[in-house]
């Protein structure tokens, strides 16, 4: 019996020591540590309850007074009641923390979903914008080709470039390179001039060769070099860097008194008369 009571006293001290660390562990707001503390308190309390029952059984067998047994049991239960209340608080605190984490995870998932939907919407807008630009460009190319048929050079270009219509109804140059057929743009139309001017600006006002390379990525313009030179020569931005400084004016004649020789002691009054 004495051994069990000594064992119970050690368990109660361990319970008190563990209970005093609860506030420090809760302040760190670590779910794993708090859960471990709660389980430890429950385990120690269960061991105390088991030892207490064995001691009560021994006391009853020994024939101790009921009042004495009740007071002893009440004293042990008072030491455990605070722990039971703290365990209940820990459980509520854990439930709140888990609920907050679940709410944050849900908010993060919602934010990720909104970001994904935003990207999808932006891609859709970008695709529709490109589609509108392509439709607008196709309309401009078709109009330029239709008006370019009135040019005197159209028949020669059609024979030389082997112009044929594609699936969109646009004329393209069917050359020897399979799979790459540039769109035909007549050099006499305003749309072609605007297209070349845009290519010149896209290349950061590049020179003739760079502008031609940009245009010929997907299009073919007959006599493109002449057209590019003419447009670049008219470009206002390029003129500012190609302008030359004004030449210095010609120097005037030197005065006669600096070009005619005089003696060392030439009289001043004669020098003045000479100047007159």
UniProtKB/TrEMBL annotation:
Pfam families with a match to the protein in the record: Integrase_H2C2
Top-rank taxon: Eukaryota
Entry protein name: Uncharacterized protein
């Amino acid at each position: 019996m004495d051994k069990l009571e000594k064992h119970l006293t050690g368990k109660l001290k361990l319970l008190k020591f563990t209970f005093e660390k609860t506030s420090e562990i809760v302040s760190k707001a670590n779910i794993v540590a708090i859960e471990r503390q709660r389980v430890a308190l429950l385990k120690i309390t269960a061991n105390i309850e088991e030892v207490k029952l064995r001691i009560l059984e021994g006391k009853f067998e020994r024939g101790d007074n009921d009042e004495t047994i009740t007071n002893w049991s009440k004293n042990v239960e008072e030491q455990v009641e605070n722990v039971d209340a703290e365990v209940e608080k820990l459980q509520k605190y854990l439930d709140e923390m888990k609920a907050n984490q679940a709410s944050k995870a849900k908010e993060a998932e919602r934010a990720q979903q909104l970001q994904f939907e935003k990207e999808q919407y932006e891609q859709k807008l970008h695709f529709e914008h490109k589609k509108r630009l392509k439709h607008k460009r196709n309309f401009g190319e078709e109009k330029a080709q239709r008006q370019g048929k009135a040019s005197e050079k159209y028949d020669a270009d059609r024979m030389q470039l082997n112009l044929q219509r594609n699936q969109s109804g646009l004329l393209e140059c069917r050359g020897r390179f399979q799979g790459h057929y540039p769109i035909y743009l007549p050099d006499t139309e305003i749309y072609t001039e605007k297209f070349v001017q845009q290519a010149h600006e896209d290349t950061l006002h590049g020179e003739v060769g760079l502008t031609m390379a940009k245009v010929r990525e997907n299009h073919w313009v007959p006599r493109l070099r002449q057209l590019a030179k003419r447009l670049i020569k008219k470009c206002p931005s390029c003129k500012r860097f190609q302008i030359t400084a004004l030449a210095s004016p010609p120097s005037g004649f030197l005065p006669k008194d600096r070009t005619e020789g005089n003696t060392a002691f030439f009289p001043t009054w004669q020098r003045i008369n000479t100047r007159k």
